Amino acid sequence: MAGALTFFLPCGFTQAMQLYALSLGNPWLSALALGLFVLGTLPALLGIGIFFTSIKGSVRVWATLGAGAIALALSIQTAQNGLLLLSAWPTWGETTTAIQTEETQTIRMKVTPYGSYDPDVFTVKKNIPVVWEIDRADRVGCADSLILSAFDIFMPLQKGVNTITFTPDRTGTFTFSCSMGMVRGTLIVED
Q1: Which top-level group of life is the source organism from (predicted)?
Q2: How far apart are CA 85 and CA 76, in angstroms?
Q3: Torsion of CA 73, 79, 82, 88, to 10 degrees
Q4: Cis peptide before 119 (omega within 30 of 0)
Q5: Where are the domains of the chain?
Q6: How many CB atoms lie within 10 A of CB 86?
Q7: DSSP letter for each residue of 8-58
Q8: At what angle do helices 27-54 and 57-85 cross, to 10 degrees?
Q9: What are the tens digits of pLDDT across the range 136-184?
Q10: How many whole angstroms separate alpha carbon 125 and alpha carbon 37?
């Protein structure tokens, strides 16, 4: 039961554990994994609870308001990341146009050691095959995968240069991101 309650925590780390538990394909192993996760996080959560019950007066009011503001901000960010993964949230940045040859168009992007995309906005042409070269650094966190759901691209990125080839068959502005939706960019497809 305690493992099931972690479902309500809006945290990428918790959601990753939930996906891991689901991927095990065994309800007993899944329950064990989430139960151990609960036991591992219990000291920190108890510490926070004890802290808030031990403070008194106006400090408690301000601490509670501060915690509420942080929770609200994190909730908004979580909702934004969810909308981003559904390609329903815009991203902005300086546009990089694809390098075109007679048969293809190439875009090059780096995933930095800090887990960001550089550049993060690309413009390509519709119905011309795209060769997307992604140079992934070491130790990048959730940016070690790339999702461009509008074109059914879900790719784990290995250290070094990774190549994705696809043909955009419709125009529009499409969001790509890491698996958690926290690192993101935009692909603009024009006629």
Answers
A1: Bacteria
A2: 14
A3: -120
A4: yes
A5: 2-85, 96-190
A6: 11
A7: G---HHHHHHHHHHHHT--HHHHHHHHHHHHHHHHHHHHHHHHHHHH--HH
A8: 150
A9: 887 667 778 899 989 999 999 888 999 999 999 999 999 898 887 788 8
A10: 46
Strand pairing report for 145-148 and 153-156: antiparallel
Q: What angle do CA 164, 169, 171 make, to 5 degrees?
A: 105
Nearest to 13 by CA among 50, 46, 47, 45: 45
The SS3 of residue 150 is helix
Query: What CATH topology corresponds to 96-190?
Result: Immunoglobulin-like (2.60.40)
**Helix, strand or coil for residue 146?**
strand
Global pTM reads 0.57
Amino acid type, 23 = S
Q: Which helix (H) or strand (E) holds 76?
A: helix 57-85
Sequence-distant (≥ 6) Cβ neighbours of residue 12 within 8 angstroms? 78, 81, 142, 180, 182
Q: How many beta carbons lie within 10 A of that of residue 101, not counting itself?
A: 10
